[in-house]
Amino acid sequence: MANVKNYYVLKNIFRLFLLIKPSKRKKIYLILFFMLANGFAEMITLASFLPFIMIISNPGEFKNLRYFSDLINLFGFDNNINISLIISFIIGFAITISGCLRLLNVWINGRYSANVGTDLSSELFQQILYKPYEVHINENSSESINILTLHINNVVGLINNVLQVVSSIIVSIFILITLALINFKVFLFSFLVVFFIYISIYKKVVKRLIMNSYLVSENSKRLLQILQESIGSIKDIIISNNQSRFLDNYKKLDYKTRKKIALSNFLSCFPRSVIETLVLLCLIIFSASFILNSNDNSDELILIIGSLAVAAQRLLPLFQQIYTGWASVNNNLSSIEKVINLLKQNKITKTKIKFNKLNFKNKIILQNISFRYRDAKRNTLSNINLEIKKGESIGIVGRTGSGKTTLIDLIMGLLIPT
After folding, report:
1. What is the pLDDT of residues 29-38, one digit of tens each?
2. Which residues are CB-contacts of 42 (< 8 A; sequence separation ≥ 6)?
3. What pTM was computed for the model?
């Protein structure tokens, strides 16, 4: 079931990607390049910690390493202090480069998401503006406002989350490769423990996140309707002293919405605390097991534990970013569906209406004009005949719903006779 949901989510992300302007889609390759560079920098950073740990735990053994001993002889480093300083400089340089690339990735992802968001938002607003007048009067304006405010912001956040997930996966792969080269058994055990815990948690919460997504979307739409109705009819509310009813309805719905948002935020964040606790326990168990089964090989233990500690310091936040990002994508699934559906309509409805210039010389004549609104069972106006002479002032009277406004809209050309 979870695989089906993931496939559906990925399908919607791909559909959204196809709606992005081609010039923006090409920039994805540049973003991927910086992601790979960041991953390689993290790999170098982790690898540079190994000689530093080794020189602390066993300086003599460090000098026996083939490539490092050649570098020591080449630069004439004759004591551990010089060696420690140069290795510290290399580590510091690697950490600085890695940190800069990490920040650059975050900035590029955010900037790209913002640019794409502006394109999508402008496209949606243009689509709404170019809809025929009859569509506007039959649609609920709160739905359009909701899409242009809440849902488009959710989609921009979703794009940023997807980029963050991809970046975290790439960096994690580089770090895991480095860890596997250090000690494959330790790497395999650590990776499987963390991976299966995250997968197990995700399978439990993904359904709830998607349900919350639709509930928050629907409740947000209803909240906006309450606001529009209350402000639009504020005169009647004050006269009838009915403020409490609107306030109660708003408060109850707002509380339900915020409860769902809070639950989604919790489900997106709580695995990290669980994982960190379990990882520390696994390190303690591994250390105890290694001590019991080894013959005074404390140097190797220090090297492995040190490498795991450094790797965990980077991997745990990355795994959490992957989980949180993907959970956020599921949590905003309803928003991406609404935006995609409206953008798809854009291909059909975005046509600029051309008005033929009328040369009003003597009079306007309406002959046998009828009109029926979409989905209505009967005509609002039937066989209307009207003549308005130039300079003449007329009044149109009738009961509510008799078609006075419709007649004016027909005269102005906003509506087309049936």
Report:
1. 889 999 899 8
2. 98, 171, 174, 175, 314
3. 0.68
